[in-house]
Amino acid sequence: MPSDLRVLLLEDDDFTRVTLKAALERFGLNVVATADDAKTAITSAVDRRATVGVFDLDLGTGPTGLDVAHGIRRVMPDFGVVMLTSYEDPRLFSTSLAQLPPGAGYVVKQSLEDLGFLVEAIIGSRRVSEAASDVPRVDLTDAQIETLRLLACGLTNAEIARVRVVEVKSVEQTIARLAKRLDLARDEVVNQRVALAKAFYTLIGARAGADGV
Asked: 178, 147 in Cβ contact below 8 A?
């Protein structure tokens, strides 16, 4: 393990944070600080001289893990970044998110077969470059993702149209395309909007009706 690897772990769920810290340390990683909010993470990165951060994307109300990553990179240009999240595509969290910092890793929790892959991503994140990060993308447009997210939040077509500043007919067409893309044919038994909402929560690694990670 590289001797200069000093890991900062940012995760707002207490159990996940403690469990992940212990697991990474068993792999020989030096976790020098943990945090559950943006302010603590940025302060700890500087004070503890961290060299790489493992950041949850969704930290609840306020700055995201991605905001923290960019904030630290501004003062520590060589800081390695690994986003560890349940979102299959960051656009599922928000289509207005900033791009990942160059060279940042993006690891989806559901795809982790073992922690070895995450450890490799942490080690590799120190090779900061100007190259764009390889971010997973689901086969949906930004408009489709935003419509799907708002639908899963319980908004009507009219409410979605107001939020997206489009006509209701446009929302109806987008929902029809979403159902086709996600192979959710109309069913007399299964409500299509419920099926679409379940598909959204599956994509963000959460149970239907639960908050994302």
From this structure: yes
